[in-house]
Amino acid sequence: MLYRILSVVLLTILIYSCSSKEEAALNVYNWSDYIDPAVVKDFEDKYQVKVIYDTFASNEELLAKLEGGAQGYDVIFPSDYMVEIMIEEDILANLDHTLLPHLSSIDSKFLNPPFDPGSKHSVAFTYGTSGIGYNTSEVAEEIDSWGAFWNPKYAGRILLLDDMREVFGLAFKYLGYSVNDTDPAHLEEAKQLLIQQKEFLLKYESSMNKDLLLNREALLSHFWAGDMYQVIDEDSVFAFTIPREGAVLFTDCMAIPKNAPHKELAHKFIDHILTPEVAGKVINEIWYAMPIPEALQYVDEEIRTDGNIFPPPEILDRCEFLTDLGDYNAVMDRAWSELKLK
Ligand code: N2P
Q1: Which ligand 1 atom lies nearest to the CA of residue 128?
Q2: pTM above 0.85?
Q3: What is the CATH number of domain 2-125+251-304?
């Protein structure tokens, strides 16, 4: 009898410990190549949890996933304008600032942003711009304009991001308009220009750009600065430029979906990333700027002093943040589908 009771007790403990281990998992949904794996490992060790990591390639993909009812993501990484959309759609949880002691490490310019007043639903992770990455051995001229994407010399070897706002954004900038332009005549003009560009396009792509550059299939790529610096780090024949017409400027954020199963742990993960020493490691790995001044002491000098990664005011002045276009999103969606079908 005693033996029986003992085995039931042991079994209960075993089942309990297994299920609680199952609970101790955190689901993170981020852009690819956007974290230092060692930092995730440190978090797992510190809190004795497993981090399950999944990646997406655009804000629209992230939104579609959550709108489609995806359950289970604990920490997500939307950009500024997407935070605005997600707040509007009631997808994001309220953050508990008392669980984020390192919020105070964030540069005050990045607290209380227009897309999320009071940082109620999101905190800044990184910032930066898009631009053009290119192979300097085959592209002999200095690239400083989006016009390079219309140069027949590079036909068939140009990648543009598979990203509606970024692609219309670059066309608008090239035409001298705002990246947030909502004049249908300007959208049509941009679309026609981009249709002409398709003759020279290898493809719209946001995931394989690094490989396609490194294996020489692509010569130029519309790309985000940090990702391009990861390519340059591997092969110094490449260069990156923020075109003179200006580019999209972004703040990518960390947020917790309303239906996240592990909200407290999600806060701990966000706070871990905001810790200056951890943030320094992340910056060194991903080559993107984070708005955490105290992290800079841990950042390699070549990264810290690079004006394409930490853009100075004269570059920031010609760049623009994307904002939510509201109902006009549907109009742009249609133009984007038409462009892709051409
Ligand atoms: C990271 C992609 C950065 C996205 N791989 C820019 N918003």
Answers
A1: 6
A2: yes
A3: 3.40.190.10
Cα distances from 14 to residues 1, 11, 49, 206, 286, in angstroms, run 20, 5, 18, 45, 40
Residue 1 is predicted with a pLDDT of: 54
Residue-level pLDDT at 3: 56
- Please list the helix, strand and coil fractions of the chain in percent, rounded to the nearest 5, in that order: 50, 20, 35
CATH class assigned to 128-249+316-341: alpha beta
Question: What is the pLDDT, as a whole number, of residue 15?
Answer: 45
d(CA 161, CA 81): 17
- Probe target for ligand 1 pocket from 179, 224, 251, with the most ligand atoms within 8 Å of CB: 224
Q: What is the pLDDT of residue 121?
A: 98
Provide CATH 3.40.190.10 ranges for the chain. 2-125+251-304, 128-249+316-341
Task: Count other C-beta atoms under 10 Å from residue 152's C-beta.
Answer: 8
Instruction: Name the stretches of the chain with pLDDT < 50.
Output: 12-22
